[in-house]
Amino acid sequence: MGEEEMTLFLEEMANVRPLKNNTTSTIGEQKVSTQAQNLRRAQLQMSEQLAKLVTDVNMIESVEPDAMIEFKRDGVQDAVFHRFSRGGYPIKHEILLHQLKVQQAREVLYNEIQKSRQKGERSILVIHGKGANSKPIPALMKSFVASWLEQIDEVLAFHSAQTHHGGAGALYVMLAKSEQKRIETKEANHKGVNIR
């Protein structure tokens, strides 16, 4: 390139600015981004769920400290519920709430239910205590727990425990299968169909 050509070239290129760095990300960066997005999505979902679980005592129905309580969603078979209410299913996890403040108990209950489902647990024990002397109402924690459990979609049923598991101070809680467990069950049942 001659001197005139170089001068002409530089004049033409005078207003040209370099492109910004290429913004394409590597697969590793995309994976980290996706994991972060999934975590934010899960946290947002948890916040929405927790917001549904009220902590205002005036917005729940109070129960008596010694009352036996139960709840069953449509679709839970009567025979299954009867066996469940008698403590007929193994309990692999206990959630202790009776010494927590209401706000703490709400978060612990919700988080522990989610963890239990992810582990594939279907029956857990929630110990809320009777709270005969609790303020501002008797059975404060028990009343909140009963209200919350009815509002958590993953809870299929609950029933006051048998005496050896805490009686009126505890609840058996039946959980829905996690999505992963549903897939595993479906695959296992599908494989069984082809066996002769």
UniProtKB/TrEMBL annotation:
Q: What is this protein called?
A: DNA endonuclease SmrA
The Smr domain covers 97-176
Q: Name one Pfam family in it.
A: Smr
Kindly state which keywords UniProt assigns to this record, in alphabetical order.
Endonuclease, Hydrolase, Nuclease
Q: Please, which domain of life does this record's source organism belong to?
A: Bacteria
Question: What is the originating organism of this protein?
Answer: Shewanella schlegeliana
**Gene Ontology MF terms in the entry:** endonuclease activity
